Amino acid sequence: MTKYVIKGGRPLQGEITVSGAKNAAVAIIPAALMIDGVCRIENIPQISDVTMLLKILEQMGAKIRTVNKHTVDIDCTGVVTHEATFDTMRRIRASYYLIGALLGRFGKASVAMPGGCNFGGARPIDQHIKGFTAMGAAMDVRNGIVFAETPGRVQGASIYFDINSVGATINIMLAATLAEGRTVIENAAREPHVVDLANFLNSMGADIRGAGTDVIKIKGVKKLTGGFYSIIPDQIEAGTYMAAVAGTGGEVLIKNVIPKHLDCISGKLREMGVEVEDMADAVVVRRRGPLLKTTIKTLPYPGFPTDMQPQISTVLCLADGTSVVTDSVFESRFKYVDELAKMGAQIQVSGRTAIIEGIDRLTGAPVKAGDLRAGAALVIAGLCAGGTTEIEGVNYLERGYEDLVLKLRALGADITEVFVPDDPIVAEREAV
Ligand code: UD1
Questions:
Q1: For ligand 1, atom 9, which residue shows the shortest CA distance?
Q2: CATH architecture of 22-230
Q3: CA neighbours within 13 Å on the CB side: how many for 98?
Q4: Average pLDDT of the chain?
Q5: 156 lines ligand 1 (CB under 6 A)
Q6: What is the pLDDT of residues 386-403, one digit of tens each?
Q7: What 3 state SS string does 101-155 have?
Q8: Residues 242, 264: contact at Cβ < 8 Å?
Q9: Atom in ligand 1 nearest the alpha carbon of residue 121
Q10: Whole-angstrom Cα distance, residue 282 to residue 14?
């Protein structure tokens, strides 16, 4: 088992570069299944969700060539199977994008149900199923596997989502790309990674319009051909470092970002007394004065992202006064609060709302990450806290943050990755 050990209380100073967007990469890699020929993907983040997805494609017959740390060539021409039922599939949420991609390419798909972050509530995929059904696919779920099948090509359809869902928007967009006819998605998600996937597919020959608005129109094409694409920077990774600087104080230049994607986060940080300066493809975050309380409600983009809720709530633990944070996207995303309480945080959760009483200081403690962004929140707490914080559940952080320890150390943080043998007998043997 690996742990992060953080000696907190140091302001962050310096500059870091944000990696490619996890949520764009995990949609674009399955999309490569529909391409005839080689596609080169640049600015791909080196995180475990990406590694696992590339491995899944390889197991299906794709040829993957690593060009450098952030560039891969993917050639799925030789893939002949519509089945992706490996165990690895259950470890990542985005494995369900294989349903849309395989339905588009083969008109059928058998895909293991997704795993990934479990925030505590249910994460249904009824909107995905509803969309595929409207496109003429017979859908069934048996023994944890989703089966989808059409007699020929999937058919374009008009689909209205009852819920604004990133995953359902992306999945239907994938299937619709190679469908027969036109698909219109209404109440579509507008997240930057939805737009990035549309740009990727269009650059490979798709005909998708309106991504970034709540109506996306897709004219099915017969085939996609290879090409080059560079993934957008990660909005949430950038936001996490912004929140970390807000918490610890100091000044950091965060490079390789699209400041527009960060507006929802920058706006809240400014309300909290943090200076955020936008540059062409970077932001400078600076805090010298006290943190101020605020009210936050997570919403689909361009609202405040639910994936930043745990990190910002952690910073608000140190604000002057009482803050209120409501997560309107996920029903139960406050499980990490119990861990923060071990560090002295004063948070009361009622349903989807957390009431956060600001305190002067958090204190280091042994804590455990239960999901990716909860892990990020605990890292921020550890950086701000007096004393030593030990964080278990590092595997969650590795799913979405490239070189987290290296990047934070470059900013002056005292954070180390420590390997702890699970078995006490092994530990004793090693100590001798
Ligand atoms: C994606 C992101 C995740 C982010 C979330 C919200 C990826 C790989 N993951 O997750 O990081 O937190 O968007 O921005 O991009 N819902 C249904 N039925 C469905 C689909 C969704 O009820 O068929 C509900 C969900 O339970 C949730 C809400 O809709 O309450 C939004 O979920 P959705 O946008 O689909 O999230 P994901 O795509 O799973």
A1: 23
A2: Alpha-beta prism (3.65)
A3: 31
A4: 94
A5: no
A6: 999 999 999 999 999 999
A7: HHHHHHCEEEEECCCCCCCCCCCCCHHHHHHHHHCCCEEEEECCEEEEECCCCCE
A8: no
A9: 26
A10: 13
> Please, what is the Cα angle at 296 between 326 and 342, to 5 degrees?
65
What integer pLDDT is reported at residue 116 of this predicted model? Answer: 55
* Residue intervals in the chain for CATH 3.65.10.10: 2-19+233-431, 22-230
For ligand 1, say whether the CB of 23 is within 6 Å of any of its atoms.
yes
The reported pTM is 0.95
Q: pLDDT tens digits for 38-61?
A: 999 999 999 999 999 999 999 999
- Dist CA 304 CA 180 (whole Å): 36
How confident is the model over 98-145, as pLDDT tens digits?
A: 999 999 999 999 999 876 556 555 678 999 999 999 999 999 988 888
* Ligand 1 atom with least separation from CA of 307: 12
- How sure is the predictor about 432, in pLDDT bands with cuts at 50, 70 and 90? very low
pLDDT recorded at residue 118: 60
CB 360 within 8 A of CB 385: no
Distance in Å, CA 275 to ligand 1 centroid = 31
Say which residue the tokens 């909290």 belong to. 272
Over range 74-91, report the average pLDDT. 88
Which of 39, 76, 117, 384 does the annotation list as catalytic?
117
- Three-state DSSP class for 187? coil
Q: Is the CB of 289 under 6 A from ligand 1?
A: no
Burial group, residue 25, by CB count within 10 angstroms (0-12, 13-18, 19+): buried
Tell the CATH superfamily of the 2-19+233-431 domain.
Answer: Enolpyruvate transferase domain (3.65.10.10)
